[in-house]
Write a structure and sequence with these properties.
This protein is α+β, with helices and mostly antiparallel strands. The protein has 2 domains: 276 residues, Bira Bifunctional Protein, Domain 2 (BirA Bifunctional Protein, domain 2), CATH 3.30.930.10; 93 residues, Anticodon-binding domain (Rossmann fold). The protein is 41% helix and 17% strand. The protein is built from 18 helices and 16 strands. It is elongated, with a radius of gyration of 28 Å. The protein starts with 15 loop residues before the first helix and ends with a helix.
Length: 456
């Protein structure tokens, strides 16, 4: 007996309705990206391993999908490294490529490689799949689609405010209410690390802080303690984690607590400048969140993260921030970067949970022409062509099966209308148009065959 076919865990097939819903979301995101002046690009699914390794931290390297060498290159395998359990060296010897982990690092490579062909500041958007070897669970897949918009070149708080507005505009287009745009600044986090007396351990500190909503303050303290942070350092952290109130209130409190930390003060001042541009835009549900740390190590300034509405249990549905000098990793210094990203797969799950998809997405076909025989279909072909050119999604049932079976097929596809043209209709010189939802039928003369006469 043949084995039942399946796909790898963490990947999915998309049925026609799934595809229609994803296309609906993508069309709205793409339109908003273009309204803000972003231009589309694409990069390969695979990058050289050397372009990706070391750019996401140790955890990111572990989650990367490496592509095995093939053909003659297999002979380069370092068997001695395998025997000595030097797995990193062995992996490098059998794999020179990896699947994209995200779109930002490949974009940095793209900018450096094509710098003489681009006009700066360069605003690009990119909608493509990425791959991560995460443990699959709801809202977390090993293959998923990111929708990124980034700017490289001269930057300003105005552009950062526009990124915040862009999030809001996309959610408005999707009729998604209640999503929360959370912001923070890496300079504030760096200032806190300095304040705790651990200036060289900002990554350890921010990785632990980023888990606050999952493990609580006690869990954060325990993790920091296990990493060698001193008790007096953690006691200083307590008033910082208890900040509350409106954004300006929290920034005022933070400014007083970190008065001796110039880097933190610079981050607070920068956020205030960005917020001064955001204020006239009337962005909904914007909050400051000191625990927002973003584990990825390349952010250098403002950080964004989007939480879904409270009634949906889901991780972040969008994120981003400023990442100056990422292109320096590929040999180009002095190039600032700023970007936002929407997670298409999670966003689609949120819309489904809240029942926010338009009903007409369930109707992939507007009209089915029922089949009473080849000669009748042939007679209708010029009219069928006219309807398709007018934008009607139309299919012809392929065979002259019993009428009941053809109508059942139309019902299963949630088709709005069917056209009947058999001997009786041909003799009268008409077509019959049946509204499948209302169950009504009207007759239209062939000489009057057009959109208005058929469906209105």
């Amino acid at each position: 007996m043949a084995q039942k076919p399946s796909i790898p865990k963490g990947t999915r097939d998309f049925l026609p309705l799934d595809y229609a819903r994803r296309s609906y979301v993508l069309d709205i995101i793409r339109a908003r990206f273009e309204r803000y002046g972003f231009l589309p690009i694409e990069t390969p699914a695979m990058e050289k391993s050397s372009s990706l390794q070391g750019k996401y931290g140790e955890e990111g390297d572990k989650l990367m999908f490496n592509v095995l060498n093939s053909g003659e290159k297999v002979k380069k395998a370092d068997i001695a490294a395998l025997q000595e359990s030097k797995l990193g060296r062995f992996t490098q010897s059998i794999s020179e490529k990896a699947l994209r982990y995200d779109l930002t690092v490949p974009f940095a490579r793209f900018v450096v490689q094509h710098q003489n062909e681009l006009t700066f500041p360069f605003k690009r958007y990119q909608i493509q799949s990425v791959w991560r070897a995460d443990r699959p669970q709801r809202g977390r897949f090993q293959e998923f689609t990111q929708c990124d918009a980034d700017i490289v070149g001269p930057l300003s708080p105005i552009l950062e405010a526009e990124c915040i507005q862009l999030f809001d505009d996309v959610f408005d287009g999707l009729s998604l209410k209640g999503a929360t745009i959370r912001i923070n600044h890496r300079d504030i986090l760096a200032g806190i690390a300095q304040y705790l007396g651990e200036p060289d351990r900002i990554i350890d500190f921010t990785v632990a802080l980023d888990k606050l909503d999952k493990i609580g303050s006690t869990g954060v303290y325990e993790e920091l303690k296990s990493k060698g942070f001193k008790s007096d350092s953690m006691s200083k952290l307590e008033p910082l984690l208890s900040l509350s109130g409106a954004i300006e209130e929290q920034l005022n409190s933070l400014e007083k607590l970190l008065l001796s930390q110039p880097q933190a003060q610079a981050g607070i001042a920068h956020l205030r400048k960005v917020l001064s541009f955001v204020s006239p835009l009337q962005v909904t549900k914007l909050t400051f969140d000191l625990t927002l740390a973003r584990g990825l190590s390349y952010y250098t300034g403002i950080i964004f993260e989007i939480a879904p509405p409270e009634e949906v249990t889901m991780g972040s549905i969008g994120a981003g921030g400023r990442y100056d000098n990422l292109t320096e990793l590929f040999g180009l210094s002095g190039m600032n970067g700023l970007g936002v990203s929407f997670g298409l797969d999670r966003l689609c799950l949120v819309l489904e949970a809240l029942n926010l998809y338009p009903e007409d997405l369930n109707q992939p076909i507007d009209v089915i022409v029922l089949n009473f025989g080849d000669s009748f279909i042939q007679h209708l072909l010029p009219h069928i062509s006219k309807l398709r050119k007018a934008g009607i999604r139309l299919m012809v049932y392929p065979t002259d099966h019993k009428l009941k079976k053809q109508l059942q097929y139309a019902n299963q596809l949630l088709t709005q209308h069917v056209i009947l043209f058999g001997e009786e209709e041909q003799a009268k010189g008409i077509v019959a148009v049946k509204n499948m939802k209302l169950g009504t039928t009207k007759e239209v003369r062939l000489s009057d065959f057009n959109l208005e006469s058929l469906f209105l």
